[in-house]
């Protein structure tokens, strides 16, 4: 039996000298090795069905090995990045970005990019004044908040002189007033979104200071999307307002990267006229020329065109853009939302067909880039579980994590360099942090990812029993497995360690036996499950059975693993997400940065 076990776990075939009796004994076990998949096809990993030998029933043991010699992909250190929507100017949250609690939460996800963009990008105008006069009206949330903002401005001026990091402990009463104001504004913002009619927004110099202060204090690199809908009569881009913003930022020596516009394929529905790919490319070339005239930004990065879902007309726009500005941008960007947030239900987040929709989009984008600029980096910006602001107790619940973690795994395995999550803090229910500044399930999932996952992606080898599909049907994986070198920034693990992350969409537990290079190694388990009676709808999570919550406004909790003895079978509970660090593998691919 030990001989059989050795052959199975090593993946080696039985030598020709095996006696026939031994081969007969091994037949049921060898069936476990009948399927094979690689993470470079993770979004469409379809097992090859095999006939089950007589007497073998529904076993759930899966054998897993990882190629440790070299990575199949290397992604950015800032792979998991964040977005803030300009609506935070409208609803007032911009004034509270200096909150110690928010900065602590953002620091937990550094290093990362912070993209300031969204549907209101193309209605944003910069006004170079520090603190414009405001109409306070009568007593109410606005009246008190504006007086409070004046106090913040005065304290900011003092901090400006000290050139310090501006972190505040905002009084509870002011936060409560702000939440009241934001709730009122939420209805206005939703009405604009559903009608696709947006009002103009003004970004003052003081507001830009607050935005940059948040990014800088949090260890995030700011990417600012400029308004592309300021147009001249000949439909070329009017850059006068953008130039004012660039000059002010340069005078403050702000380290910023830039974009132009948001979802240009939707401009016809917004303003009644379109901007084709060729014209948009010329606009980007114009922006690059502006940046080169300003010493601070002569070498700044420029990203775009941030198109929507790559349907036929959008691909045509991208092709026109790449012909003109393919060499001008440092990465090509697009965005994706899985579900219409107005009609979503919890079972949507468990559909493997939905998880796999992203693979086709990646192929379409890659095909265009391979034609015009082979090797150009690709970013997915503005990704979220649902559009239309999301749904309470759904897109902000544990269930949404299945889409988010699979998105991270799939994009990394396909070589997408950066994914920007919409949104860190926002109106609606697609964010990582709610308006009480409490982290939601996707925040904890992102934090674990940042702490445990490094930029090197590894190929996996999986073998196990799969049911045979009915004629004309395809079996899609309900067990998603991805592997990376463990993060070099995590000093709890020596270089050469490997991290697996696993999504189990089955309604039954699955057992995984580590084989080959992973065999008989100590494993640290990080099992993330919903906490409380709400199940998949829960906004609270537990790690290895312990609820996760901030210790205080300046301290995140310790993420404690559960050590598993060497050689132990991994048991994956149903409908869960988990990370497993395989220690001391000494993987060649992971020894060096």
Automatic annotation (TrEMBL):
A Pfam family that the UniProt record links to this protein: Glyco_hydro_79n
One GO process term, biological-process aspect: extracellular matrix organization
Listed GO MF terms: hydrolase activity, acting on glycosyl bonds
Example of a GO cellular component annotation carried by this entry: extracellular matrix
PANTHER family: HEPARANASE, INACTIVE HEPARANASE-2
Family: Belongs to the glycosyl hydrolase 79 family.
Name of this protein: HPSE2 protein
Species in which this protein is naturally found: Rynchops niger (Black skimmer)
Upper lineage: Eukaryota, Metazoa, Chordata, Craniata, Vertebrata
């Amino acid at each position: 039996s030990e001989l059989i076990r050795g052959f199975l776990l090593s993946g080696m075939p039985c030598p020709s000298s095996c006696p026939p009796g031994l081969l007969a004994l091994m037949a049921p076990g060898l069936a476990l090795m009948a399927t094979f998949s690689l993470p470079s096809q993770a979004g469409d990993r379809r097992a090859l069905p095999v006939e089950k030998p007589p007497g073998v029933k529904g076993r759930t043991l899966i054998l897993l090995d990882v190629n440790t010699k070299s990575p199949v992909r290397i992604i950015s250190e800032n792979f998991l990045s964040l977005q803030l929507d300009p609506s935070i100017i409208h609803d007032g949250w911009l004034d509270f970005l200096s909150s110690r609690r928010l900065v602590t939460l953002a620091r937990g996800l550094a290093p990362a990019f912070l993209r300031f963009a969204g549907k209101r990008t193309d209605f944003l105008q910069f006004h170079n004044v520090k603190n414009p006069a405001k109409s306070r009206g009568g007593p109410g949330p606005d009246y008190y908040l504006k007086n409070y903002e004046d106090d913040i401005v005065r304290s900011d001026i003092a901090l400006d002189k000290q050139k310090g990091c501006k972190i505040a402990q905002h009084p509870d009463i002011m936060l409560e007033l702000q939440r009241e104001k934001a709730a009122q504004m939420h209805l206005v913002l939703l009405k604009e979104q559903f009608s696709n009619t947006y009002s103009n927004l003004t970004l003052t110099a003081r507001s830009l200071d607050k935005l940059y202060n948040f990014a800088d204090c949090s260890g995030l690199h700011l990417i600012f999307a400029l308004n592309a809908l300021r147009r001249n009569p000949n439909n070329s881009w009017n850059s006068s307002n953008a130039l004012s913003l660039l000059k002010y930022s340069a005078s403050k020596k702000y380290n910023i990267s830039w974009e132009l516009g948001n979802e240009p394929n939707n401009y016809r529905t917004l303003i009644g006229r379109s901007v084709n790919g060729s014209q948009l490319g010329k606009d980007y070339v114009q922006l690059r020329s502006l940046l080169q005239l300003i010493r601070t930004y002569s070498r700044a990065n420029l990203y775009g065109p941030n198109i929507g879902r790559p349907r036929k007309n959008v691909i045509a726009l991208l092709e026109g853009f790449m012909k003109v500005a393919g060499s001008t941008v440092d990465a090509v960007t697009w965005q994706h939302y899985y579900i219409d947030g107005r009609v979503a239900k919890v079972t949507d987040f468990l559909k493997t067909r939905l998880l796999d929709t992203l693979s086709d989009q990646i192929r379409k984008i890659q095909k265009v880039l391979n034609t015009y600029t082979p090797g150009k980096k690709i970013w997915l910006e503005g990704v979220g579980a649902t559009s239309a602001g999301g749904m309470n107790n759904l897109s902000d619940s544990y269930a949404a994590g299945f889409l988010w973690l699979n998105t991270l795994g799939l994009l990394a395995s396909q070589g997408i360099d950066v994914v920007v999550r919409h949104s860190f803090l926002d109106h609606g229910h697609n964010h990582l942090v709610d308006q009480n500044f409490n982290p939601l399930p996707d925040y904890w999932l992102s934090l674990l990812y940042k702490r445990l996952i490094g930029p090197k992606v590894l190929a996996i080898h999986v073998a196990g029993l799969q049911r045979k599909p009915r004629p004309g049907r395809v079996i899609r994986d309900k067990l998603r497995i991805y592997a990376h070198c463990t993060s070099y920034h995590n000093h709890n693990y020596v270089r050469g360690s490997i991290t697996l992350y696993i999504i189990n969409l089955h309604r039954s537990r699955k057992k995984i036996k580590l084989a080959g290079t992973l065999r008989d190694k100590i494993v640290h388990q990080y099992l993330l499950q919903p906490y409380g009676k709400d199940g998949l709808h829960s906004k609270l999570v537990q790690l290895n059975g312990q609820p996760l919550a901030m210790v205080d406004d300046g301290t995140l909790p310790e993420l404690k693993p559960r050590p598993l003895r060497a050689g132990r079978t991994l048991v994956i509970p149903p409908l869960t997400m988990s990370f497993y660090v395989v220690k001391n593998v000494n993987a060649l691919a992971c020894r060096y940065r």
